[in-house]
Amino acid sequence: xxxxxxxxxxxxxxxxxxxxxxxxxxxxxxxxxxxxxxxxxxxxxxxxxxxxxxxxxxxxxxxxxxxxxxxxxxxxxxxxxxxxxxxxxxxxxxxxxxxxxxxxxxxxxxxxxxxxxxxxxxxxxxxxxxxxxxxxxxxxxxxxxxxxxxxxxxxxxxx
Length: 159
What we know:
about 160 residues, mainly alpha, about 0% strand
């Protein structure tokens, strides 16, 4: 496996850690059952993303420990959402995913050795994973019914 793939894979894994912390914190700030349902599914997606990646990370010798400073950063990000409306929170999530996380996650599939089926699966799944967050965020912003269905479609253990 090439060095650039490993570096990008680690960055994606760290992105999952940050996302998990953000959605876990936002879950504690939810105002009603609908918000709890949405944040719970997003938290579940981040947790499952980490779990799916771990066997490959270990195989490649990449650490899977929680990054404490990244967790604190996630808490700070969630804290910054406190004064915002629910829609404003998702407008911020949408922009972050679109401009930062999605390009990084999609880059992973351009770096993978296509003969490594496990790495290919992970790279493709993580791109789908991030696109599902983007679509769910857009659905929430536009008040569409069942906004987190794109996320639920990916979950092995949906909420």
